[in-house]
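Recall from the previous chapter that SMILES is a line notation for molecules. Here it describes pyridoxal-5'-phosphate.
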Amino acid sequence: MSTLDEKVRALLRPQILALTAYRVADPTGYVKLDAMENPYDWPKEMVDEWLEKLKQAKPNRYPDPQAARLKAVIRARHRVPAEASLLLGNGSDELIQIILMAVAGQGAVVAAPEPTFVMYRQIAATLGMQFVGVPLHSKDFELDMTVWRDALQRHRPAVIFLAYPNNPTGNLFQLEAMLEILEGAPGLVVVDEAYAPFAEATFMERLAEHEHLLIMRTVSKLGLAGLRLGYLAGAPAWIEQLDKVRLPYNINILTQISAEFALSKQAVFEAQTRQICRDRALLLTALQSLKGVQAFPSRANFILFRVKNQPVDAVHSALKKAGILIKNLHATEGALSNCLRVTVGTSDENQKFLLALKEILTAD
Ligand SMILES: *Cc1c(COP(=O)(O)O)cnc(C)c1O
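With both inputs in hand, we obtain:
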């Protein structure tokens, strides 16, 4: 080891040294079905109109630190209750970080189902916080309330994250179980509705009934992943404090203008979302009809499936060789053994994926 490596190891916290960075494959030349992006480009007239709006941007000036106009658009379009306050983040990833930075220390524990979105654990680790993963039922990926009751008692989590629908399993957890956790939680409960556009289910209207509930949303999966914008809705008493952790100009000027514009084009995104939901149904049926594949129903814009008779790593790399990128979850956790996750693309992309998969599964 060089002396620089030694210096790095001596200086940085062990939790950081032990982490693996979040890596994304280079998508150049691939059919990209690994990151839950909306596959549709904007109509040309919409692009022209957007570029016209961007001319107002003054890159020499700081953006509005409160992003007041954008917040007003979000409130109007996404039915945020009037009593709730909003906090904007550079993606919801940043909001997870803000929440956890605000509670870190004093032995605060973070809890979430397992498997779920990896950033809860990853960000907790960077802050040296204890993370408790509460295993889902392995058959249907529902919340296991026996284990949850025990975990709530034993760990008294300061923050619980519930992705609704869950990533990477795609299901909406049973409402009664969600409510029981919400009622039994000693700290904050963050319901992460990243896939709300595809789910037709939300806890937004329950904000008023539960003062320790926060709703987290992102525009990424809707079709604006490049903008990096998420928001948190909740009681002003929480949001005021969390806002102190937020860096002052976290939503840049281009994102503010672009998101305001895009959210005013609701019909375009609603049509795309409907198309994605129709294609999701077709893709699920097609996957379920393949021999050696177990595909799980989804309320999000992706489908989780298990490959039963072939080594899943080989299937994943054969797909890549065929020009198709999807996510391999096999290594992550026991419940996801032999599992892959495919994002719903355009119908052409889905066909390419299905054809390639069929060929791989039938070749010997
Ligand atoms: C994709 C995803 C996010 C991250 O969204 P960004 O706003 O792009 O940071 C958050 N939560 C879940 C469950 C996700 O799947």
